[in-house]
Design a protein that fits this description.
Elements lengths: L6 H6 L12 H28 L10 H55 L6 H22 L2 E2 L2 E2 L11 E4 L3 E4 L7 E5 L2 E4 L4 H5 L35 E6 L2 E6 L6 H9 L7 E6 L4 E6 L6 E5 L4 H4 L4 E5 L3 E2 L18 E8 L8 E8 L7 E5 L13 E4 L4 E5 L7 H13 L5 E5 L22 E2 L4 E2 L8 E5 L2 E5 L7 H9 L5 E5 L6 E5 L1 E2 L3 E6 L3 H5 L13 H4 L10 E4 L5 E4 L7 H11 L4 E5 L2 E2 L2 E5 L8 E4 L5 H4 L13 E5 L2 E5 L11 H14 L2 H54 L3 H26 L8
Parallel strand pairs: 16-18
Antiparallel strand pairs: 1-2, 3-4, 4-26, 5-6, 7-8, 7-11, 9-10, 10-13, 11-12, 14-15, 14-21, 15-19, 16-20, 17-18, 22-23, 22-27, 24-25, 27-31, 28-29, 28-33, 30-32, 32-35, 34-35
Helix pairs in contact: 2-16, 3-4, 3-15, 4-14, 14-15
C-alpha cells in the first residue's frame, strides 16, 4: 500500500521511484519516461499559472472552485451591466433636472408678470403686453416639454420617439405622450423609473371622468378565478361536501376558471349521491340529489376557498346552496352583451348525462322572464334530428319544441331552437349545458307529462347598452360624435375613443369596474354627454348628471345664490315659477323643485343631446319660455339657464310646433388642470380683462408650481438613491473581484516556489536517467 502524499507532494506531483532490481530494460525505459513526462507536465502547469496568473485553466482541475467562479463571474457581469444602466440613466435624470429648473424659472417669471396685471392702475396696453409675454412663455414651455436628450424625448412617457406636445390652434395644447414610465434595473432585482412623463411635470392629462357605473360583468363558464371578488381572486385549496353520512373532499387548487370549479364539484359528489351545479349570472348554485332527509354542508379543508367562492355552508340544509355574488372585474375582452344586467334563462335537465340544455334570452332585462319551455310530442316528429320544430308564442309567453319521446336527443332540441332564432321568429337561444355535455348532446331528453313545462326562464335584469346612439364629446371647442355601433367588447369602446380625434384617453379604471376617460388637450373645456340616447349615462361617463353636486359647478365656484328666490321660469302661457336653490345639493334636486312647482305642460330634465338642463314647454301659450335670474344671485347663470352678463352664446330656445324647448349650457365643464391650461386661461382672461379669471389662472399656476416643486424633490431623491446605489455597487464589485480572486487567481509566490522545486526534481530525474542508461550487464554480475 503506497504512502499517502503530503499536500506539498500533491501540488508538485508524485516522484516515481526507479527500480534497481533485476527488471527488463523496457520496464526501466517506461518508468523513466513516465517520470520525466510527469515532471514536464507539472512544470508546464506551473508555468501556465505563472504566465496567466490563474490557478486553474479548466473546470475539471477543481470542479467546486470552478462552479463558484462561474457563478461569481456571471453575477459580476450582471452587476457591471447594472452599473452601465445607472450611469446612462443618471445622465437622463440630470438632463431632466436641468429642464425642470428652466421650467420652474419661467413659471416664476410668468407669475410675477401676471400678478402685476391685477393692479388696478394697469392700462389695456400694458395688459396686452403682459398677454404677449405669457404667450411667449407658452411657446418656450412647449420647446422645453419637447426637449430631446440622447435620442429620446424626456417628457413623452413610454413613447420616447413621439414629440409629446403640439400646439393645436393658438388656444390649445395637445399631449401625445402617455402617463407611463421607462424602467431600468438599479440592482439585479430592483427596478426604478428613469424618466418623468409630461403629465407629472406639466399636468396635461385631465382628472378622469370616472365611470360611476359598475358595469357588473356576468359570470360565465370561462371566467377566470383571478378575476373574481373585484380582482382579489380565489385562494387555491380544497373543500369538503357532506351529503347525509358521506363526505367528499374536492381539491380545487388546479382550477383556473369558474367552469373548472363547477365541473370538479359536480364530478366529485359524496359516495352514493349526485350534485347539480349551475353557474348563474352572479355565482354558483349547488343542489344535493340524495336520499330523503339528507342534508348538505360545504366546509373548508384548511383554507378559505369555500368562503371566497361564496358557498360556505356549515349548517346542514336540504335546499340548494345559492352562492354569493362573485363580482368579476371588467376586462378588455368583456363582452358588452355581458354587462349592465343579466338575461332570462333556465337549465332544463334530463335524467342521465349529456342531455341538459341551457335556454337563454338574447337580450338583457326582465322582458323574457317567465317564458315556459314546452316539449310537445304531437306525433309530428317522424325522423328525430330532422323534424323537430321550435315555435315562440309572445302572447302565451311559451317556447314549444316538438319532439319524439324516447328518441329526440338534446342536440336535436338545440338545433331546432337555433333555427327558430336564426329565422328571427324566436328571441330564445339554446345550447348544451357545458357542465353536463360529454359527447355533443347525444343522449335522449326527458319529456315531461303533457301540459307540464320543462322549465321556466327567470333571472333577467338590467337594460342593454345603447350602442346605436353613441357619445357626444366636446373638447376644446370641438364637438365629436363617437359611434359605438360596431363595438362588441370593452376593448372596442376603449380603442374607438382612443383612436378618435376627440383628444381623449380611455382606460379601464383602477377598480376594474368600468371605463375612465381623460382629456389630453390643455386650455379648453371637456364634456361628455348624450347623443340622443342613454350611452353616456349607462357607461357612467356623462359629465352632467342628476348626481352632479351644485358646489362643483363653474369649475368649483358653486351657485353663488342669494336669499329667497334665485331665478324665475316663465312659461309660454304666462305662468311664473319662482325657484329657490337654498339647501339644494345636486342637479337632481333642482329638477325636482322645478317639476314640483311647474304647471301642466312644463317639464325639466337633462338634455337629450349633450349636457345641461332642458326645459320643455308644451303649454301652448302665445308667449316665450324664459328664465330670468334674481338680482344678486348667480344660480341661474351657474346652472347654465341664463347667459353671464355681457356675454353671448346663452341658452337656446327651439320651437317645434306648439312646443318650446330651452336647452341650458353645460354648467359642469371639466378641464386639464396643468401648466398649459393655467397659462392659456390666463391669456384669455388678460384679453378679456376678466379679473376673476386672472385670479383663478394664477391660483391654478400656483398649484402647478407647487406640484413642480414636489416633482423636482422626488427627482432629486431618486438621483440621490442612484448615487447611493452606485457607491454600493462599487463596493460589491471589489468584494466580488476578491471572492473570484480567492478561487481563481494563482499565488505567484507559491507558484514560483513550486516551479523551482519541480525544476530541481526534473533535473534529478534527468541525472538518474543518465546514470541508469550508463549501466551494463557487468553491473549485475
Amino acid at each position: 500500500q503506497p504512502p499517502v502524499p503530503s499536500p506539498n507532494q500533491r501540488t508538485m506531483g508524485l516522484t516515481i521511484g526507479i527500480p534497481t532490481t533485476r527488471v527488463s530494460d523496457m520496464f526501466i525505459r517506461q518508468r523513466l519516461l513516465g517520470q520525466v513526462q510527469s515532471d514536464q507536465l507539472d512544470m508546464f502547469k506551473l508555468q501556465v499559472q505563472l504566465s496567466t496568473g490563474y490557478r486553474i485553466q479548466s473546470p475539471s482541475e477543481d470542479p467546486d472552485a470552478a462552479s463558484r467562479i462561474v457563478s461569481l463571474q456571471r453575477l459580476l457581469e450582471r452587476k457591471e451591466q447594472v452599473q452601465t444602466n445607472l450611469s446612462t440613466n443618471q445622465s437622463y435624470l440630470t438632463a431632466t433636472d436641468t429642464a425642470l429648473s428652466t421650467i420652474s424659472n419661467m413659471l416664476a417669471e410668468v407669475r410675477g408678470v401676471a400678478l402685476g396685471a391685477l393692479d388696478t392702475t394697469v392700462t389695456d396696453m400694458q395688459r396686452q403686453a403682459t398677454r404677449h409675454e405669457v404667450e411667449q412663455a407658452i411657446q418656450q414651455l412647449l420647446d422645453a416639454g419637447n426637449q430631446k436628450f440622447r435620442g429620446r424625448y424626456l417628457f413623452a412617457g413610454r413613447k420616447t420617439d413621439v414629440r409629446p406636445f403640439e400646439s393645436v390652434d393658438p388656444k390649445y395644447v395637445c399631449y401625445h405622450g402617455d402617463s407611463g414610465h421607462l424602467q431600468s434595473y438599479s440592482d439585479i432585482d430592483l427596478l426604478f423609473d428613469t424618466n418623468l412623463n409630461g403629465d407629472e411635470v406639466f399636468g396635461v392629462i385631465s382628472e378622469s371622468v370616472l365611470g360611476t357605473i359598475d358595469l357588473g360583468p356576468v359570470l360565465t363558464f370561462n371566467t377566470r378565478l383571478a378575476e373574481l371578488r373585484g380582482g382579489l381572486g380565489i385562494s387555491p385549496g380544497s373543500i369538503s361536501i357532506t351529503g347525509g353520512d358521506q363526505t367528499s373532499i374536492i381539491d380545487l387548487s388546479s382550477a383556473e376558471t369558474v367552469g373548472d370549479v363547477a365541473l370538479m364539484i359536480r364530478n366529485n359528489p359524496p359516495e352514493g349521491k349526485q350534485l347539480n351545479v349551475e353557474i348563474t349570472a352572479t355565482g354558483l348554485t349547488i343542489e344535493l340529489l340524495g336520499d330523503p332527509g339528507d342534508l348538505m354542508t360545504i366546509r373548508e379543508v384548511g383554507g378559505t376557498t369555500a368562503d371566497e367562492l361564496g358557498i360556505l355552508t356549515e349548517t346542514g340544509t336540504a335546499l340548494p346552496v345559492v352562492g354569493n355574488d362573485l363580482d368579476p372585474i371588467v376586462r378588455p375582452t368583456t363582452q358588452l352583451d355581458d354587462v349592465l344586467g343579466t338575461r332570462s334563462s333556465v337549465v332544463v335537465r334530463s335524467s342521465g348525462s349529456d342531455n341538459d340544455i341551457l335556454f337563454e334570452a338574447d337580450t338583457l332585462g326582465t322582458e323574457f322572464d317567465g317564458v315556459e319551455i314546452i316539449f310537445l310530442d304531437d306525433g309530428s316528429v317522424v325522423t328525430p334530428g330532422v323534424d323537430e320544430q321550435a315555435t315562440y308564442d309572445p302572447v302565451a309567453h311559451t317556447l314549444t319544441v316538438t319532439v319524439k319521446t324516447d328518441h329526440t336527443q338534446a342536440c336535436h332540441v338545440v338545433a331546432a331552437v337555433t333555427d327558430a332564432y336564426d329565422a328571427e321568429t324566436s328571441p330564445i337561444t339554446a345550447r348544451l349545458d357545458p357542465l353536463d355535455e360529454q359527447d355533443g348532446g347525444q343522449r335522449i331528453i326527458t319529456v315531461p307529462a303533457p301540459g307540464d313545462p320543462a322549465g321556466t326562464t327567470a333571472g333577467g335584469s338590467g337594460t342593454p347598452l345603447d350602442k346605436n346612439s353613441g357619445l357626444k364629446i366636446v373638447n376644446s371647442g370641438q364637438t365629436h360624435l363617437i359611434n359605438l355601433a360596431d363595438a362588441e367588447t370593452i376593448e372596442d369602446i376603449i380603442n374607438i375613443l382612443n383612436t378618435s380625434d376627440a383628444g381623449v384617453l380611455a382606460e379601464i379604471n383602477d377598480d376594474a369596474t368600468g371605463i375612465d376617460v381623460h382629456s389630453l388637450i390643455s386650455g379648453g373645456d371637456f364634456m361628455i354627454g348624450e347623443n340622443g340616447g342613454t350611452t353616456a349615462t349607462q357607461l357612467g361617463l356623462r359629465t352632467f348628471t342628476e348626481a352632479t353636486r351644485l358646489e362643483d359647478l363653474d369649475y368649483g365656484a358653486g351657485l353663488a345664490d342669494a336669499e329667497g328666490t334665485d331665478f324665475t321660469v316663465t312659461t309660454s302661457n304666462g305662468d311664473v315659477i319662482e325657484i329657490d336653490v337654498s339647501n339644494m345639493t345636486n342637479i337632481g334636486e333642482v329638477l325636482t323643485e322645478i317639476n314640483d312647482n311647474a304647471p301642466a305642460g312644463l317639464v325639466a330634465q337633462l338634455a337629450a343631446f349633450g349636457n345641461g338642463i332642458e326645459l320643455i314647454d308644451d303649454c301652448g301659450g302665445p308667449g316665450a319660455l324664459t328664465v330670468e335670474r334674481t338680482f344678486g344671485s348667480l344660480a341661474a347663470v351657474r346652472l347654465g339657464l341664463v347667459a353671464p352678463d355681457g356675454q353671448d352664446g346663452g341658452p337656446e330656445v327651439q320651437i317645434d310646433g306648439g312646443t318650446q324647448t330651452l336647452t341650458g349650457l353645460d354648467a359642469n365643464p371639466h378641464e386639464t388642470e396643468g401648466i398649459f391650461t393655467a397659462l392659456l386661461r390666463l391669456t384669455d382672461a388678460l384679453e378679456a380683462n376678466d379679473v376673476l379669471q386672472i385670479e383663478r389662472a394664477i391660483e391654478m399656476l400656483d398649484q402647478c408650481m407647487a406640484n413642480l416643486n414636489f416633482v423636482r424633490a422626488e427627482l432629486g431623491t431618486r438621483q440621490q438613491g442612484l448615487d447611493v446605489m452606485q457607491t454600493r455597487l462599487d463596493l460589491e464589485d471589489v468584494d466580488l473581484q476578491t471572492a473570484i480572486s480567492d478561487d481563481y487567481d494563482a499565488d505567484l509566490a507559491e507558484v514560483i516556489s513550486n516551479l523551482a522545486a519541480r525544476q530541481l526534481a526534473y533535473e534529478a530525474s534527468l541525472r538518474a536517467t543518465a546514470g541508469i542508461f550508463q549501466l551494463t550487464l557487468l553491473n549485475y554480475l
